[in-house]
Write a structure and sequence with these properties.
Keywords: Phosphoprotein. This is Two-component system response regulator. InterPro entries: CheY-like_superfamily, Sig_transdc_resp-reg_receiver, TCS_response_regulator. α1 links the parallel β2 and β3. The radius of gyration is 14 Å and the shape is globular. The protein is about 35% helix and about 25% strand. Strands 1, 2, 3, 4, 5 and 6 form a six-stranded mixed beta sheet that branches. The chain has helices spanning about 35-40, 55-70, 85-95, 100-105, 115-125, 140-150, and strands at about 10-15, 20-30, 45-55, 75-80, 105-110, 130-135. The protein has a single domain (about 5-150), classed as 3-Layer(aba) Sandwich (Rossmann fold), CATH 3.40.50. It is an alpha/beta fold.
Amino acid sequence: MNTANIGADTALKHDKKTDIGIIENTYIIDDDAISSFLTENVLEGFSKNLKSFSSAKVALEEIFAFEKAGTSPFAIFLDLNMPVMDGWTFLNAVAHQHESFKKRCKIVILSSSIDKAELCRANKNQLVLCFISKPLDEAGVATVKALLSGEKHDSANYS
């Protein structure tokens, strides 16, 4: 796997036992505890460090703090519909980060929304890698891995 296609040389480590790339840091941002739990279980083995947030605002504060230190999550699985700060507001805040952050960090919208306008809006956002309908499953994880590695991947689960 060529990590240059992913945007960060150390973002993806290769696991020789399973031949699956392992992401260094992944955040799940979802106010629904059950959905977050299910996403964590599906992402087991996907990331070396997996952290969940029930608040986009708290996650954003941590991201900004880590970014000042020169580190950041590599993959973020983001719900759109949350109280206090929704996914769109989160994306707008992240859009003001340094270009290096935007190259390193890939955001996957993980939403139960079936609103075509939201799907279209997500597809137009350069920070968004893909839009996946909840619940995340193994096919969705395979799609994300393929997109992160720069491979073309056909799936009915993302747009």
